[in-house]
Amino acid sequence: MTTRWLTPKEQRAWRAYMAATNLLEDAIDRQLQQDAGMPHLYYGILANLSEEPERKLRMTDLAQKAKITRSRLTYAVTRLEKDGLIRREDCQWDKRSSFAILTDEGMAVLERTAPGHVETVRAAVFDHLSDEQVEQLEEISSVITRALEGDESAPHPPSDKLPWRRRSSSPCSGS
Amino acid sequence: MTTRWLTPKEQRAWRAYMAATNLLEDAIDRQLQQDAGMPHLYYGILANLSEEPERKLRMTDLAQKAKITRSRLTYAVTRLEKDGLIRREDCQWDKRSSFAILTDEGMAVLERTAPGHVETVRAAVFDHLSDEQVEQLEEISSVITRALEGDESAPHPPSDKLPWRRRSSSPCSGS
DNA sequence: GACGCTTGGTTAAAGTTTGAAACAAACCTA
DNA sequence: TAGGTTTGTTTCAAACTTTAACCAAGCGTC
């Protein structure tokens, strides 16, 4: 089958998109590293926990919510635990499971740094988009997500790798 | 100053965007690792070189084009050089500079794997977007890029770090 | 109740990224 | 033209990610 190359217009859009995401991810990582002493992914883990009723989540559930691998989460939680922002607790019912729990200190860090984070996102994105563009962004993003999540053709990751996975996500709900 | 949290609409857009980019990055990385034996970033470096008249670019220019740090580029080029896909060459005029040059083998790898890559991008993105949406995506991306590149307020990275630069993500929408 | 499969979580090793510092060549400028 | 600064690149250590095991607890079954 002959390749359906991208049209010039699609190419321009693709390049612009890649450039923007690279710059954005970097800016956010830098800001959070600066102000919160952790990369965006770690901030996202704390944020995810903060949204839970008891600020706790089983490791696997947390990994799914944050869309990262379990091993990556293990590493991150170990670090955050050392920092005193999270603590682990064994599950009573299922002795295999363990919870990650956001400590008061972790919550405090989140509350202290959320404003700066939001400000960064605003300054980079939403302060420059019209109302319609915000809608367009959501719609386009949703289309892409659907295309990728609906895709069961992808050879199912051996075991650790979740089918969708990764990089961070996670909002500071609370705030 | 009181924090200007994201509106519900902005939050939705932000989360959708983050989810999409996470999934997309992952899908592309997996596909390229599979078919070309390298992550997207490395493929991008080869692709950038292939567009040059002589398939060569000074390290710094390449870093800027690919929007990555110079140290990251050094590492990547070292690896690609080992693989025989790129070779270095010293610059005559400015003896501090060095070029990265795409070898014939590198070009061959690119040509062999480009169709699969394009197909992945199409399947995930462009096959599902209308003509207007492609335009919107470019426009929105450009706005973000301008916001981040034009920003000279950011405390200029000591040295290595470019003012804009890269990687992961995930914010706390305002909530 | 032993065998086998699945699930929750961690670990180890190899690969990659970061951030700061080191170097050397090129560029002022007095 | 000596001395100081900027520019182009690399290096190094520490932090992080990935992949592929690995272990132990639950689950089902014969």
From TrEMBL, chains A, B:
User: Boundaries of each HTH marR-type domain copy?
Assistant: 10-149
Q: Where is this region: Disordered?
A: 146-175
Q: Which residues form the signal peptide?
A: none
Q: Can the keyword Cell membrane be found in this entry's annotation?
A: no
Q: Which InterPro entries match?
A: HTH_MarR-typ (IPR000835), WH-like_DNA-bd_sf (IPR036388), WH_DNA-bd_sf (IPR036390)
Keyword entries, A-Z: DNA-binding, Transcription, Transcription regulation
Query: Which molecular function GO terms apply here?
Result: DNA binding; DNA-binding transcription factor activity
- Protein name, please? MarR family transcriptional regulator
